[in-house]
Design goal:
about 1450 residues; seven-stranded mixed sheet; about 30% helix; about 25% strand
């Protein structure tokens, strides 16, 4: 049970006190009423004696009575009605509430912290480590549980309002005070009248109520004298007369009202009555009026309750009061009077009572006089009367029973001898209807026992109760027996020194008898209240709880609620607190409180239980409690609490069925609507549904992308439909940095901020994003509906705050923020937004800024409602698949908001950040609206999605300026500049040739003369025209806009040539269009537009080429140094794109130093056709061209009848772009590999010359046409492949060698090879040399310094008969291939050393000078005349001379390698 203010002994003593009746004359009552009090009320605060009292027991032993209290009540001639008692008890509990504002006590029980009372002590359970300490603390604490003043008020009121019954005498009147005023004309006659009235009430059969203890009731005569108005002398005279008539022991002169009304009001007199009368004045009046004044006969005495105003009484002769039912202890605060039905008269009386203080005419001396009066009455009147009565009863019992002199001497005899076993309750007959006559000895014993109990003589009382119990049980008078058992148990407990243990089984028998046999729940309840308090004092909480729970029943909700609550407190106060039992019984108590109409107490019980169930995963229990709390709070108009409780039901992951969730939601909306109606102009409330995943919020700046229109395809740019890709995002950032660094001459500005169109949880949100005025800001909010019922959001829009600023001014002037209306920021609202059950759905909300400044997006605002429920058909939930615009709201919706609060990324850079938890800012919801900027839209016309590798296709790009300001400096940057070109500077001006337009060719073509077939047609071009060699980055391409400016609303269409990437597969090619405003802005310097082109390429041709020295030393013009170029072409297309065959239509060369001269193919066909998997080999002669440091020479060898001008766009563009990308790769490699060399001085010039000998700077372009069958139509595709020949004798490929192998081998073989590759690659560990030696040319490079050629007849006829020696003239041509002076050594004595040569060829000799030393100047061709001598016929190899070469300033000689490459055979014939 809860902690009580009184100790258990005080409680038991005060539960049963001697009752004294008061009978007043009207005048006496009027004197008392001057103090706003009745006479009985006047005495109330002074009814407890402050000193000990002595009396003697029947054995003449002195008995001390401590702290005695008496009760003085007005006489009531009708017993209280049960319904009236119930109403009174209900209101007593209702008024007594826990005081608000007090600090709640936190009781810790196990892992529960319970806010229950105002004292703070820990309690724990054994399975926690610190349970010993907390239990010790618990046990040593005096007050460790909560107080429940409403229960104490109820208990007190219940005990005092119990009607008197015949089987016990505890609440029978022992004495009667007769009160008369000294101001009456004949006070003594008035006393006589009152005495007769009392006698008539007690002894006539007309009055059955009240009950009197003994026939000879003590009458005590009180003369009431008003000091302020009465004559004191007269009062003394009357009093003297009284003393003579009634004796000094039987009368008293009480002087009151000493205080004169006009005395100084400064004197503060205490008001001890308020605590006793609070309940009366506030709660009992209507109860009495409604329930007690039910007497139909008007002549019958009218019933008037205590505390009513004097005006109500209208000269009644016999003013017997109604039953007082007043309480002796204060209750809680008066803040709950809303529940009471108050009539007008009651309200008036309240006003009078509250306006007039109690005891206004009394001084402190009067207080002492009243106290003295009670003491005198008790000492001289009441106790002597009781003592005498006990003696008389004792004597009567002894004489009737024939027992020894005293009961005390008989007690031993009764208890020591043979005990008769008591019959059990079940064996006893139902004799509860048995009545004893008043003179029955059994009742006399009970009467004596009760008198002894009232004067605290508990030992004698116990003996009498025990004796009476046996007699009653023998007579099977069960009601009497139960009463004796009950009081025997209480007496045994209250005996000083505790000579015997508390007989709890007596109480249990009594309770069972009252409840089951006598059917008297009131007496059973009293038993339980007494016994539970005793058990609690002995720490027998479990037994007390069981007792309390046992008496809960359906007949009284209030009683059941209070007892269940006390049982719950028993569980929490046990040695090992049973927290969950506490909570469960609190729920039961709350339920019963609710049924009893005690809404506040019900709410409190549920709230206390909620502390236990909260957060433990018992979701259904939590839902039930929260729902009830919400309901009760709403009933009590505690709307905020109601909203909070319903909110909890909705936001927890509810396991309720859909119908229940729908009910909860409707209830919540209904409550919320009431809250908002109370304060319609207040701030919008925070709504709990739907959930918002704030971190998933995405912000998009700009207009939505236009859809494709036929062949016109808009740039993909960025949209909210695209998934975020960190790799892609990084690529775009790098591209933007690249173009910005080009614009800013290689330096990225410090304040550079990469453009971010879409901000999300992965993007860098540490800076304030930039938005442009008049361009929409789209916020994508992710909503989740956790319920199984659909939610309907209406009028959904963003909530924002805006601060206007002028960024064009020098100091960012802040404009005075006027009304933030749609003139500044336009807000788009979604009329209806449905979220189905357990669905996650995103809403895209737009803002349209019309002014520059700082925008802060705070959250969303919307009406939350539900969809009208429909009947399910065939078990299908109608909520599933509801379409927007096709549903009906049930009309119940509330407007509220939810804030978007995004937590930034966790900081982890510094040591401090790593050791603590700190989060950086996330500013994606705080964009800065900048001044107007141009806005570019790009459209691609006829843009292909599939190409052959190397295929050239012409498309058009349309640039549109859709803003109101011009744009300039339009550039495009891509990682794959070789994929597209806008043409050279002259391309736009050059009209297309008629033949090109006829054939729809992407190239610039010219019809050729048939005679010029296979002969090179020359042209030249500068790389500067194609954007190569300008020193800029090749990836950044200037878009050739007319006048370099695109005006507002203007559009420009430009041709764009595309070339399919050399590698097959799907390619994503990113274009970043960069542009600026003509006017410079402080916040935003440029804008970009993104486009990702997806191209799928199919295999076409694979080309390999080699270059080697020609044996011919001179060309047609007599110049030396010509070469042969071999080109191998293979068709590796496997008809993937419907390709029938490829035609090689032209081979062109591009170089500053070399040019193709002619084709040396044997075939006479005009062009080469290649079907699938076919190969062809072409051979071309290349010669040096005149040196030109600036221009490149283009040589076209045409196989058809149309020349493609390779030096014009787009052929040259793609060639130069591929060259620049190759050069870039080579540059990166040389930069990484040659970092040590960079430290040293540049190459020695001579060594560089040697190396240059074997280098060839020749680029070959193979142009082709492919015939494709598609939809029964034949299409002609064009394309070109590039091969860069750099080194003599080294094979070059049209695309990287590894990929080339893959193409040649086929994918399956290549996969096998790939699997083997990792095993073949060995790790190499080496230590780089610290000082590498000077770079030297390789022997291979040196061997190419001199090219040699032998000129001789293929066959020579000689008559050996005539002349035995045959002399053949041979010319040895030496050509210096380098730009340096070369020393040459020629050794003719050399014979072929290889054994194969000796076997095949005969031996010969050289005649004349056999060793030469020559010096050849740069590019010099030297002719040396030699003679070969043969002695017989045969085939001879003349390629025996060894040629050594060295640079003029070098020492080492190197042999040329050309002699051993092929034999120079001569046939000698005999004539």
């Amino acid at each position: 049970m809860a902690q009580c203010v009184q100790s258990v002994q005080e409680f038991l003593q005060d539960s049963f006190v001697p009752l004294v009746a008061a009978l007043c004359s009207e005048e006496a009552e009027r004197l008392a009423r001057r103090n706003n009090l009745g006479f009985a009320e006047l005495l109330k605060p002074f009814c407890r004696l402050t000193s000990e009292v002595h009396m003697r027991d029947p054995n003449n032993q002195l008995h001390i009575i401590k702290n005695l209290k008496i009760a003085v009540n007005n006489i009531i001639t009708h017993p209280p009605q049960p319904s009236a008692i119930r109403k009174l008890l209900n209101e007593v509990v209702s008024v007594s509430q826990p005081a608000e504002g007090l600090v709640a006590n936190v009781i810790t029980a196990g892992d529960y912290d319970l806010n229950i009372s105002d004292r703070s002590v820990k309690a724990s359970v054994p399975w926690y480590s610190n349970w010993k300490e907390t239990l010790m603390e618990l046990n040593t604490s005096t007050f460790y549980s909560a107080t429940t003043p409403w229960f104490e008020s109820y208990r007190e009121c219940f005990l005092q309002s119990m009607p008197a019954s015949d089987h016990e005498f505890l609440n029978h009147y022992v004495a009667c005070m007769l009160v008369v005023s000294s101001s009456e004309p004949e006070p003594v006659e008035q006393f006589l009248k009152l005495s007769q009235e009392q006698h008539r009430i007690q002894h006539s059969s007309e009055y059955m109520y009240p009950k009197w203890f003994i026939p000879n009731t003590l009458k005590y005569y009180v003369l009431l004298h008003d000091v302020s108005t009465g004559e004191e002398q007269r009062a003394d005279t009357i009093y003297e007369e009284m003393k003579q008539r009634y004796g000094t022991q039987g009368c008293y002169l009480l002087k009151i009202n000493s205080r004169v009304s006009n005395r100084g009001t400064d004197e503060q007199i205490p008001d001890p009555w308020s605590q006793y009368l609070q309940k009366n004045t506030i709660q009992n009046q209507d109860c009495y009026e409604d329930c007690y004044a039910v007497i139909s006969n008007k002549n019958t005495d009218q019933l008037i309750s205590d505390g009513l105003d004097n005006e109500i009484k209208d000269g009644i002769s016999n003013n017997f009061k109604t039953h007082p039912l007043q309480l002796d202890h204060p209750s809680g605060s008066l803040d709950s009077t809303d529940y009471l039905k108050a009539t007008t008269s009651l309200q008036e009386s309240k006003k009078l009572n509250s306006g007039m203080p109690h005891g206004a005419c009394l001084t402190l001396t009067d207080h002492d006089r009243i106290r003295q009066f009670i003491q005198e009455f008790t000492f001289r009147g009441l106790l002597p009367h009781i003592e005498k009565t006990i003696r008389q009863l004792n004597d009567q019992l002894i004489s009737r029973k024939g027992l020894s002199r005293s009961l005390f001497s008989a007690t031993k005899k009764w208890f020591s001898g043979s005990k008769v076993p008591e019959k059990s309750i079940n064996e006893l007959k139902n004799t509860s209807g048995l009545l004893y006559p008043p003179e029955a000895p059994e009742l006399q014993i009970r009467k004596m026992a009760d008198l002894c109990f009232l004067v605290q003589h508990y030992e004698l009382a116990y003996s009498c109760y025990h004796t009476a119990k046996k007699d009653f049980l023998n007579d099977q008078a069960m009601l009497y027996a139960a009463g004796a058992l009950e009081m025997a148990a209480v007496s045994a407990f209250l005996q000083p020194g505790a000579p015997r243990p508390y007989p709890a089984h007596y109480m249990e028998t009594a309770i069972q008898t009252y409840r089951d046999i006598c059917k008297n729940m009131v007496l059973a309840e009293r038993c339980v209240l007494l016994s539970a308090e005793i058990l609690k004092s002995q720490s027998k909480y479990s037994e007390a709880a069981a007792l309390l729970i046992r008496l809960t029943s359906e007949d009284s909700d209030l009683r059941s609620a209070l007892l269940l609550e006390q049982a719950a407190h028993c569980f929490i106060n046990m040695k090992s607190p049973m927290v969950r039992k506490f909570a469960f019984h609190m729920i039961l108590a709350g339920h019963r409180f609710s049924k009893a109409g005690q809404k506040k107490h019900a709410l409190r019980c549920y709230c206390q239980a909620m502390q236990v169930y909260k957060g433990k995963g018992w979701s259904l229990a939590e839902d039930h409690i929260n729902f009830t709390i919400g309901r009760q709070s709403f009933t009590l108009r505690q709307l905020d609490n109601a909203v909070s409780a319903f909110r909890h039901i909705l936001i927890n992951d509810s396991k309720q069925p859909p119908a229940q969730q729908g009910a909860f939601l409707r209830e919540y909306l209904y409550v919320y609507k009431n809250v908002t109606q109370l304060s319609p102009d207040g701030p919008l409330p925070q709504l709990p549904l739907p959930y918002i995943n704030s971190s998933a919020t995405r912000i998009f700046f700009g207009h939505d992308r236009r859809p494709a229109e036929g062949e016109k395809q808009a740039a993909t740019h960025v949209s909210l439909d695209q998934e975020y890709d960190s790799e892609s995002s990084q690529q775009w950032k790098e591209l933007e940095e690249q173009v910005v660094s080009v614009i800013n001459k290689g330096v990225i500005p410090a304040n550079f901020q990469p453009t971010q169109f879409c901000l999300n949880r992965y993007s860098d949100n540490s800076r304030f994003p930039l938005a442009v005025v008049e361009e929409p800001v789209t916020v994508e909010v992710s909503f989740r509906n956790p319920l199984k019922v659909p939610l309907l959001l209406t009028d959904l829009s963003l909530l924002w705050k805006f601060q206007p600023k002028d960024f064009s001014a020098k100091h960012d002037e802040v404009k005075e923020p006027g009304k933030c209306d749609d003139d500044m920021i336009g807000t788009e609202a979604i009329a209806e937004f449905l979220i189905n059950s357990e669905e996650t759905r995103v809403a895209r909300l737009k803002l349209f800024p019309h002014q520059t400044g700082e925008l802060h997006i705070l959250g969303v605002v919307y009406n939350l409602g539900t969809v009208q429920g429909t009947v399910t058909l065939d078990g299908i939930d109608p909520a599933i698949g509801l379409q927007e615009g096709k549903f009906v709201s049930n009309g119940l919706s509330v407007r509220g908001r939810q804030d978007l609060e995004i937590q930034g990324p966790r900081l982890n850079n510094t040591k401090e950040e790593k050791t603590s938890i700190k989060y950086g800012p996330d500013r994606r919801l705080d964009p800065i609206i900048t001044e107007e900027m141009p806005l570019l839209e790009v459209f691609f016309i006829n843009f292909p999605t599939g190409l052959l590798c190397g295929e050239i296709r012409k498309a058009y790009v349309e640039f549109v300026n859709v803003s109101k300001c011009p744009l300039t400096a339009l550039k495009v940057v891509s990682k794959h500049p070789e994929f597209f070109t806008f043409g050279a500077n002259t391309a736009v001006l050059t009209p297309l040739s008629p033949s090109a337009s006829e054939n729809c060719s992407a190239y610039k073509t010219v019809v050729t003369d048939p005679t010029s077939v296979r002969t090179a047609l020359l042209s030249s071009a500068s790389s500067v025209d194609f954007g190569v060699g300008t020193g800029g980055q090749p990836e950044v391409i200037q878009v050739p806009l007319p006048d370099s400016v695109l005006l507002p609303g203007a559009s420009v269409q430009l041709p764009m040539w595309l070339r399919g990437p050399d590698e097959e597969g799907v390619h994503e090619i990113n274009f970043l269009f960069y542009y600026e405003s003509v006017k410079r802005h402080s916040k935003m310097s440029h804008r970009v537009l993104r486009h990702t082109a997806v191209i799928c390429t199919s295999r076409s041709l694979h080309i390999r080429a080699t270059v080697c020295r020609s044996n011919a030393l001179e060309d047609d013009e007599g110049r030396g140094d010509n070469m042969l170029v071999f080109v191998d072409i293979e068709n590796i297309n496997t008809s993937e794109a419907g390709v029938k065959e490829f035609h090689i239509v032209q081979v062109s060369s591009n170089s500053k130093h070399w040019k193709l001269q002619k084709s040396v193919n044997i075939s006479e066909d005009k062009d080469t056709k290649l079907a699938s998997r076919e190969k062809a080999k072409l051979c071309f002669k290349a010669v040096r061209c005149k040196n030109s440091e600036e221009n490149y020479t283009f040589a076209d060898i045409v196989f058809g009848n149309e020349q493609i001008i390779s030096s014009a766009s787009p052929c040259a563009d793609f060639l130069f772009q591929s060259l620049s990308s190759e050069l870039k790769k080579a540059h990166v490699q040389s930069h990484t590999h040659g970092s040590q060399r960079a430290v040293k001085p540049s190459f020695d010039e001579a060594v560089r010359l040697v190396q240059r000998c074997s280098e060839v700077d020749l680029n070959v372009v193979v142009l082709w046409k492919a015939y494709v069958v598609e939809d029964n139509k034949q299409l002609i595709l064009e394309g070109q492949h590039h091969i860069a020949l750099n080194t003599v004798g080294k094979e070059a490929f049209s695309f990287p060698q590894k990929q080339g192998f893959k193409k040649i081998l086929g994918s399956s073989d290549w996969e096998d090879l790939e699997q083997e590759l990792p095993e073949m690659a060995l790790l190499k560990f080496f230590r780089p040399e610290s000082t590498p030696g000077p770079a030297r040319p390789t022997p291979e490079q040196l061997s190419n310094l001199i090219k040699t050629s032998l000129h001789y007849p293929e066959s020579f006829s000689h008559s050996f008969h005539q002349k035995s020696l045959c002399l053949v003239p041979v010319t040895l041509l030496l050509s210096n291939c380098s730009q340096a002076v070369v020393d040459v050594m020629i050794d003719l004595r050399h014979k072929t050393t290889s054994p194969e040569a000796l076997e095949i060829h005969g031996s010969f000799t050289w005649l004349g000078q056999t060793q030469y030393k020559l010096q050849l100047k740069s590019q010099e061709v030297y002719s040396l005349q030699l003679k070969a001598c043969f002695v017989h016929t045969g085939v001879y190899n003349l390629g025996t001379p060894r040629v050594f070469a060295k640079l003029a300033d070098q020492v080492t000689l190197f042999e040329t390698s050309q002699q051993n490459s092929m034999p120079a055979l001569i046939i000698i014939n005999n004539i």
